[in-house]
Specification:
The complex is a heterodimer of chains A (411) and B (268). Chain A is built from 15 helices and five strands. Chain A has helices spanning 2-22, 25-45, 70-81, 94-100, 115-142, 148-163, 182-200, 219-249, 252-257, 263-293, 301-324, 328-344, 357-363, 367-381, 386-406, and strands at 53-58, 86-90, 108-111, 169-176, 207-214. Chain B has helices spanning 41-49, 70-76, 92-103, 108-114, 130-142, 160-171, 185-191, 209-216, 236-245, 259-267; strands at residues 3-12, 15-25, 30-34, 56-61, 64-65, 77-80, 148-152, 177-182, 194-199, 202-207, 219-224, 228-233, 252-255. The chains are: A alpha/beta (411), B alpha/beta (268).
């Protein structure tokens, strides 16, 4: 019965906090509308790389050395000279390259091994075909004058030629599913290969182009988990700081303390409230990212664990700050002074690799870094974020304990 | 006795907020603690509510010790703190319902009607006037159906109409024990069965208003003769003797002491 009453009290306080939040226009704006606006703005601004960039991986190397064959190099130079496409030659495997550049829009053409060998063979076959048609004409008109042995050899050659297939060169072209420019570049590539074959071989196109559509990651994929984590942080650090400070200043804590409600129940109610906001924010961001940028991510149970840990951790920080300052303005100013640098230094708005080394070191000391990185890994790239979850879990426990201690229920 | 306080002392740094306070509150009475600002009224009441820890002395509320049993006390008392505040964006009904749910307490409609807030039940707390907010506070204080209610300066800052309306609500609480603090004489005189006057942390008087007047006040006889004469007298017999001794039957009036006069005398 006691446990039921406790649960009822916690739920009712959570609902009261939630209703109060829902009726606060600024609260709803800064918790939901603002991150959605940022996602839309930055998602559009930073969408994609150059319009007609084409990355090329040349796998046709000279025997024994890691240098491209002359013909494959000539092929790339010729393609670059068309000026229809901006060619960028890169190294590595296609899978690695796509993985490493997962947050930019890329198109990749892979020149296969034995490109030069096959192209040369195709030239030889085409030339032999041409030569053989002359030979057949001679046989048809002058066979009586040709020695028997020579005719036999010619027949052998004809049979070989009939049986020998002209090699094809299979180029692999990787492009994102919804990349509108990708088919245009594919058309350019087709025309170029046809022309290249005609000049080199004097025959129809020997290139086959296999188009591989992959689900590429866009700026929105990068920003969405970042914004979810950043605004879970601001809801806790800024929102809860001002709530705690205001409730303390106005004597609401004192009033609640004279009811059967216990401090730990109030703390639990706030954690539930903040977790609920975090879940709602995640869903809103997922829907907007899906509709506006076709982001297909959906949080797995591990992501939810990170989201819960983040909500708890930043609620704890909010409780500490709110308890230190009775003046709401001062408390909110301090919370802002902590939240905003944390947001900008944790890789939420730009990749940590873009920052100077000393700032990268500072970023490692910021809890939000582990939250946004972990969430990005768990939600988007599908990697292992267990280290981030452990760090966040430990910090959440520590800060929640400190926050609970800091809240002054009564003297 | 529903409250027993013996030699209660509370010290903040170098300031003695309460100095050996001893008092008793009887069951079902309305007991007022009267004193100037900073006299220690709120400190005393907050110790009794279990919100503050005394430096020394003893206090029992409903038979429970204020230090050891503060959890038991707060489940059984109703409290209206000074400057009551609630959840601003919740309505009157939602706030009262929330407080009631914390106790598993009284029906919300019953509470709303008890404090006369029927027509404001759907109005948000932040949109209410000071008097209406205090009524919400009283409803919240009654949410757990307590036998003992503490009202800390329930009418401070209210306009005269709102103050009288709040008095009516408090009057309706008769049947419960009510301890209220105030610095309004009129309020104590109107509502309280007994009054304790606290000055600089010390109880300087504690009794019914009539007894306080009798103990500390003087009757005055004002005779409107050829000149106006005002005389302090000890008893009605003395008045009778003075009037008999006048050469003419001049108009006169007998002025009884007010609580304010007694208060000013004791405080100064």
């Amino acid at each position: 019965m006691k446990a039921v009453m406790k649960a009822v009290r916690i739920i009712n306080i959570s609902l009261a906090l939630f209703k109060g939040w829902m009726r606060s226009r600024s609260g709803v704006f800064f918790s939901f509308m603002f991150p959605v606006m940022l996602l839309l703005i930055f998602g559009v601004i930073f969408q994609g790389g150059g319009e007609y960039d084409l990355y090329i991986i040349n796998m046709d190397k000279k025997n024994g050395i890691n240098e491209p064959t002359n013909l494959s190099k000539a092929f790339i130079d010729a393609l670059n000279s068309t000026s229809a496409i901006n060619v960028i030659v890169v190294n590595g495997t296609p899978q690695d390259f796509i993985q490493e550049n997962s947050f930019g829009r890329i198109r990749l053409l892979v020149i296969p091994p034995r490109f030069e060998e096959n192209f040369t063979k195709a030239i030889a076959i085409e030339r032999m075909k041409s030569m053989f048609s002359t030979v057949e004409y001679i046989i048809g008109n002058y066979s009586a004058r040709i020695p028997e042995d020579a005719l036999k050899e010619m027949e052998k050659g004809r049979v070989w030629l009939e049986r020998t297939e002209r090699p094809e060169i299979r180029l692999v072209y990787y492009a994102e599913k919804d990349d509108a420019v990708a088919p245009i570049i594919a058309g350019v590539l087709h025309a170029f290969t046809a022309s290249f074959t005609l000049k080199g071989v004097g025959a129809e196109n020997i290139f086959q182009m296999e188009m591989v559509n992959y689900r590429g990651l866009k700026p929105a994929d990068y920003y969405m988990p970042g914004y979810i984590s950043a605004f879970i942080m601001t809801n806790g650090v800024i929102g809860l700081t001002s709530t705690v400070s205001d409730m303390r200043r106005r004597g609401i804590f004192k009033r609640l303390a004279t009811t059967p409600l216990e401090k730990r129940e109030w703390v639990a109610a706030n954690v539930i409230h903040q977790s609920l906001l975090a879940i709602m924010l995640t869903f809103v961001m997922l829907i907007v990212a899906r509709l506006a940028f076709s982001v297909e991510a959906f949080p797995n149970p591990f992501s939810w664990l990170l989201i819960f840990e983040g909500a708890v951790l930043f609620s704890g920080i909010g409780m500490i700050l709110g308890s230190l300052f009775r003046d709401v303005e001062a408390a909110t100013a301090i919370a802002n002074a902590i939240a905003f640098p944390m947001m900008f230094l944790s890789g939420t708005f730009w990749s940590l690799e873009m920052m100077p080394e000393y700032l990268q070191t500072i970023a490692k000391l910021i809890p939000l870094t582990y939250f946004s990185e972990g969430l990005r890994t768990a939600m988007i790239t599908g990697g292992d974020a267990s280290f981030n979850a452990i760090i966040l879990g430990v910090l959440a426990v520590v800060f929640l304990a400190l926050g609970s201690y800091a809240v002054k229920w009564y003297e | 006795m529903i409250i027993e306080v013996k030699n209660l002392v509370k010290v903040y740094g170098n300031t003695k907020a309460l100095d050996r306070v001893t008092l008793e509150v009887k069951t079902d009475e309305i007991f007022a603690i009267l004193g100037p600002n900073g006299a220690g009224k709120t400190t005393l009441i907050e110790i009794l509510e279990g919100l503050r820890t005394p430096t020394s002395g003893e206090a029992k509320v409903l038979g429970f010790d204020v230090i050891k049993d503060r959890d038991k006390i707060r489940r059984k008392v109703g409290v209206l703190p000074q400057d009551f505040a609630a959840f601003d964006r919740l309505t009157v009904e939602e706030n009262i319902s929330l407080f009631s749910s914390l106790y598993n307490g009284l029906d919300v409609s019953e509470l709303i009607s008890l404090v006369g807030l029927e027509q404001w039940r759907k109005v948000r707390f932040q949109e209410l006037s000071g008097g209406l907010k205090q009524r919400v506070g009283i409803a919240c204080a009654l949410a757990g159906s307590p036998d003992l209610v503490f009202l800390d300066e329930p009418t401070t800052g209210l306009d005269p109409i709102a103050r009288r309306e709040t008095w009516e609500v408090i009057e309706n609480l008769r049947g419960k024990t009510v301890v209220l603090t105030t610095h309004y004489m009129e309020e104590a005189e109107k509502l309280a069965d007994r009054v304790a006057i606290i000055v600089s942390g010390r109880i300087v008087a504690c009794d019914s208003v009539e007894e306080l007047k009798r103990k500390f006040g003087k009757l005055r006889l004002v005779v409107h003769g050829e000149t106006r004469r005002e005389l302090e007298v000890e008893s009605f017999e003395e008045i009778y003797r003075i009037l008999q001794s006048l050469d003419k039957p001049y108009p006169f009036e007998i002025v009884t002491p007010t609580l304010e006069e007694i208060y000013v005398k004791l405080v100064s």
